[in-house]
């Protein structure tokens, strides 16, 4: 009986409590680029609430601030580092015959 009770007890591990990413003095605003850029991935996507460790109210205001900054061109909609280049110019008329009059 004593062994079966031990299996259900949780281990008492000490864990380091993480600090909240947004301090009480930080103002969530579209102009606060240093704060907003912490919640955007490398591709320019808004990170989820679980990854950010934010409350629901904070995540909503961060999302609105990021969208406002994108509309005002303070942030890019996409952050593509690869620039697509065309090595050959492929036009639609290359296979067509030209008419001689």
From TrEMBL:
Instruction: Tell me the superkingdom of the source.
Output: Eukaryota
Keyword annotations? Chloroplast, Plastid, Ribonucleoprotein, Ribosomal protein, RNA-binding, rRNA-binding
Subcellular location(s): the record lists: Plastid, Chloroplast
* One term under GO cellular component: chloroplast
Pfam families xrefs: Ribosomal_S18
Against SUPFAM superfamilies, the record matches this protein to: Ribosomal protein S18 (SSF46911)
The molecular function GO annotations come to: small ribosomal subunit rRNA binding; structural constituent of ribosome
Q: Which GO terms describe its biological process?
A: translation
Tell whether RNA-binding is among the UniProt keywords: yes
Q: Which family does it belong to?
A: Belongs to the bacterial ribosomal protein bS18 family.
Assembly and partners? Part of the 30S ribosomal subunit.
Q: What is this protein called?
A: Small ribosomal subunit protein bS18c
**Source organism per UniProt:** Vitellaria paradoxa
